[in-house]
Amino acid sequence: MQMRLGRAPSTRTRLPQQHGGGGGGGGERGPAGHGQGGLRGEGEGVLTAPPPPQEPPAAPRLRDTPEDISLEAAANAIALHPARALLAAGDVDGDVYLYGYSCLPGDTQQLWSSGHHLKSCRDVAFSPDGQRLLTVSKDKAIHILTVEDGRLETRIAKAHSTALNCVLPIDHHLLATGDDGGELKVWDLRKGEAILESRQHEEYISAMAVDGNKKILLTASGDGTMGVFNIKRRRFELLSEPQNGDLTSVTLLKRGKKVACGCSEGTIYLFNWNGFGATSDRFALRAESVDCMVPITESIVCTGSLDGVIRAVNILPNRVLGCVGQHLGEPIEQLAVAPDGQLLASCAHDQKVKFWDISSLGSMVVDEYRKKKKRGGPLKALTSKAPGSGEDFFADLREEQEATGEAATGSDSDDSD
C-alpha cells in the first residue's frame, strides 16, 4: 500500500481537532502544514540551537625519533645533511636516495632517487656547504649530485683502477677517495684531476678522516695499518704498525689529541696525535667486531657490529656505556650523526634505516673509578628503543623468566678485556 505524502508518523502526538462533525480527520490526512488539524511543518516556528563550535583538530603527536625507512635493497652507506633534516643512502644496486626525515608521523618521505651508478654504491657524503652529494661506486666512478633535485653535475669515470670504497669531502674544492686496492687519491674539483695519488696499503681503504686544519689525512685499511698523508704538501708520511684484524674506521677524539681506529676483531686502537707509528692504548669490546664508528662527543663514540648492536663507548676512561639500539641479527653497515648530535641513524642488512635518540649521551659523565661488574651481563639500554637486555641479539628470544632474571641484576658490560 503506498504511503501518502504528508502523513504524520504514528509515533508523534496528534494535535487536538479544531472542529467536530463528519469531516473530522480530513485535516489529519492533508499535507503537513495545510488544512485544519494538520501537523506543523518541521522547522516551522521551531527554534533550533546552533551547532556547538567544533574543536580544532589535535596536533599530531611527535615521535621521539623519525620513522624507520624501508629500502628496496640493503644500503651500504648513509649520510646526514650538515644543516637540514635530510638523509642520503646508497644501496647495493647502485641507487642513491635522498629522504627528508621528521618526528611527525608520516612526514619522512623520499625526495628523489638516482640510478646513475652501474654497480653497488659504496659510500655517500654531503659537501661541507650541503649543496652537493658525493657518491662512489664499485663501478670505479665518482658522482657529484645536486642536493635539491638529484641532478648529476659531475661524473669522473674510471677514477681509480679498482672499485672505489669510500669518499671524504675535505673542503669546498677537495675530496679524497680510497679503493679496494689500497690506493688513495685527493681530487681538486677546480682542476678536475687528482693532486695526490698514493698506494701505500696492501688492502682496501675502509675509512678516512681529516684534522681540523685540513692538513693531515688519516686512512684505515684492511691490512691492519693506519696511513698518514700530508694534504698541504701532497705527500705520504707514514704507516702505523699493523694491528690484528682489519681496521674498519678512524676518527679523531679529545679535541684532536687522540685517534681511534675500530677493528674487525672487536677492538678499538688508540693513537696519540703525532705518535701514529704505534698505538698508545687498546680497548677490547665484547663484540664480534667494530665495523663502523662515529664520534658523538670528544670522548664518546658509537660503534656498529656484526651482531647488529649499536654500542656507546667512552674513550679514556675506556667503558662500554650501553646499547643505543639494534638491528636484530643484521650486521650494521654504517652510522651517521645529525649535526646537533641529538640523533643517530644506522643502516644494516635488513634493508632498513633506523633512527636513535642519543641526546642523553652528551651529558654522561664517566668516573675514573670502575666498580666490579658481572662479566657477560646485558648491556644497559641507553634509549627507549634499545633492547632491555642484549649483549647478543638472541636476547629478545630468550624465555621471559630468564630475561626477567637478567634484568634484575642491573649489570652492564663495561669492563675491558
TrEMBL record:
Compartmental location: Nucleus, Nucleolus
UniProt feature, compositional bias: Pro residues: 49-59
Organism of provenance: Cairina moschata (Muscovy duck)
Alphabetical UniProt keywords: Nucleus, Repeat, rRNA processing, WD repeat
InterPro entries documented for this protein: WD40/YVTN_repeat-like_dom_sf (IPR015943), WD40_repeat_CS (IPR019775), WD40_repeat_dom_sf (IPR036322), WD40_rpt (IPR001680), WDR55 (IPR017422), WDR55/POC1 (IPR050505)
Primary subcellular site in the record, as a coarse category: nucleus
Organism lineage: Eukaryota, Metazoa, Chordata, Craniata, Vertebrata
Ranges of Gly residues composition bias in the record: 19-40
Function: Nucleolar protein that acts as a modulator of rRNA synthesis. Plays a central role during organogenesis.
One Gene Ontology term, aspect cellular component: nucleolus
UniProt-annotated stretches for the region Disordered: 1-63, 373-392
Pfam families assigned: WDR55
The family this protein is said to belong to: Belongs to the WD repeat WDR55 family.
PANTHER family (alphabetical): WD REPEAT-CONTAINING PROTEIN 55
Positions of WD repeats: 157-197, 332-366
SMART domains found in the cross-reference section: WD40
Keyword rRNA processing: yes
Protein name (database record): WD repeat-containing protein 55
Record GO biological process: rRNA processing
